[in-house]
Specification:
The protein is α/β, with parallel strands linked by helices and 435 residues long. It contains eleven helices and 19 strands. Bound molecules: 5'-O-[hydroxy(phenylacetyl)phosphoryl]adenosine.
């Protein structure tokens, strides 16, 4: 496929020029953060670094890291670098212990984010002739808004479907001839399955491409989706903290994701020592947002394990590539596209008067994540009346839904029936084999 670019000059810029651009932006950004974010200024002061020490990208390693714990500490406004009256939007992730991560955007931030998503859409072959069906969730989650904005920028006809209601998705897809589908890979596979069950063959489906991300997916899954829908399936990566989808995107080569490094500078570090690792090493991915105004995180540790590569790409883009994320350094699970931490489950159990003796079982059945939590009854709560057990399970599932944003199936089991481990408790059984 001949490659089109959304912002050719940037996407194909010689590496030395990108580096120069990054250095210029970084110097300004560090000053902006130092002057406007007391939380980060303190971190820099503690490390004995001032903005004068940062003359370019080569000095980035001198800056302190930010972690999710910092974001929680600083919740909600502690990392805000612009007055609220210059902000036009927030997005948010679900967070542990009830504290969410809230990211703020000025109009400039929304614009650059949408540009990043537009680059992804164009790299998948999208133009203003396309009909782009956005089936990521809309709302606080960044998926819907990001791809929606990107689709507008490209000038595609945008179908703002949000996720769910598969029958309606398929009806619009067919009636309005959707050509690009944007959703999580598991939802894409589910839609494919549904279409197949309805008797559609790939050549009867108008789609030509899909832009799928927000959760890990394998090459086997890619092949399955491509086959059932008759499309090319492209990966897209991002996180709420840096803006949302579009931090990195795949091109026609489908061998990794180009990082929009004019906006987000990536590093790979040793997660134990924090040491910056050379290109090609596997480690934790860290991003610095070079020109975001409202929520400009410097050296944010994503917890995603990854590899970066500058190998020449046949699409002509010079933007550095990241491999598909290969796991996480923490225990975060992504279930039906939602980030879930075992600690959130523990918090609910303690709030509801249970002990944190539980096991999470996640599986994928017919491309749908199943999510079960086995919880031990406490001797005080013990009952053998079925109606009481059912009602307790329902209450607990509701409390989990409030905390997590998705619905688990809760099974209450007898006290002391969950195997105790001699070492680290095995809290999660993930049967999906996603990596
Ligand atoms: O998932 C943003 C997004 C929306 C990306 C739509 C792509 C498409 P969060 O909910 O904050 O943001 O979750 C971010 O999800 O740190 C990764 O662990 C994981 N993740 C995101 N994209 C991918 C991907 C959005 N393509 C966290 N492959 C990240 C694997 C991904 N994991």
């Amino acid at each position: 496929m001949a490659q089109n670019y959304y912002q050719k000059e940037i996407e194909t810029m010689p590496v030395e020029d990108i580096r120069k651009l990054q250095s210029e932006k970084l110097v300004k950004q560090v000053k902006h953060v130092y002057e406007n974010v007391p939380y980060y200024k303190n971190l820099m002061d503690e490390k004995g670094v001032t903005p004068d020490d940062i003359k370019g990208i080569e000095d980035l390693h001198k800056l302190p890291f930010l972690t999710k714990a910092d974001l929680r500490d600083a919740y909600p406004y502690g990392l805000l670098a612009k007055p609220l009256n210059e902000c036009v939007r927030i997005h948010s992730t679900s967070g542990t212990t009830g504290r969410r991560v809230v990211a703020f955007y000025t109009q400039h931030d929304v614009d650059l984010w949408e540009d990043c998503c537009a680059r992804a859409i164009v790299a998948s072959g999208g133009t203003n002739e396309d009909v782009c069906q956005v089936a990521y969730g809309y709302g606080l989650f960044t998926g819907g808004a990001g791809l929606h904005g990107g689709s507008h920028r490209v000038g595609s006809m945008t179908l703002p479907m949000s996720s769910g209601n598969t029958e309606r998705q398929v009806q619009f897809m067919m009636d309005l001839n959707a050509t690009i589908l944007c959703c999580t890979p598991s939802y894409a596979a589910y839609i494919g399955e549904y279409l197949k069950e309805q008797g559609y063959t790939p050549d009867q489906i108008p789609l030509k491409a899909g832009i799928f991300g927000a959760e890990p997916w394998t090459e086997e899954m890619r092949r399955g989706i491509e086959e059932v829908l008759g499309i090319k399936a492209y990966d897209i990566y991002g996180l709420t903290e840096t803006s949302g989808p579009g931090v990195a995107f795949e091109c026609c080569e489908q061998t990794g994701l180009h990082v929009n490094e004019d906006h987000f500078y990536p590093e790979i570090i040793d997660p134990d020592t924090g040491e910056v690792l050379p290109e090609g090493s596997k480690g934790e991915l860290v991003f610095t947002s070079l020109d975001k105004e409202a929520f400009p995180l410097l050296r944010y540790r994503t917890r995603d394990i990854c590899v970066l590569s500058r190998k020449k790409c046949s699409c002509g883009r010079t933007l550095i590539k990241m491999a598909k994320p290969m796991g996480r350094t923490d225990d975060m699970l992504i279930i039906r596209g939602v980030n879930v931490f075992p600690s959130q489950i523990e918090t609910v159990l303690l709030n509801e008067g249970y002990q944190p003796n539980y096991q999470i079982v996640v599986d994928r059945v017919k491309n749908n994540d199943t999510f079960e939590i086995n919880v031990e009854m406490t001797p005080e709560k013990f009952t053998d009346k079925v109606s009481e057990i059912l009602s307790m399970e329902k209450n607990l599932a509701n409390a989990m839904k409030t905390m997590l944003g998705i619905n688990p199936t809760v099974h209450l089991v007898a006290p002391k029936s969950i195997a105790r481990s001699e070492g680290k408790a095995v809290r999660v059984i993930d049967k999906r084999k996603l990596i």
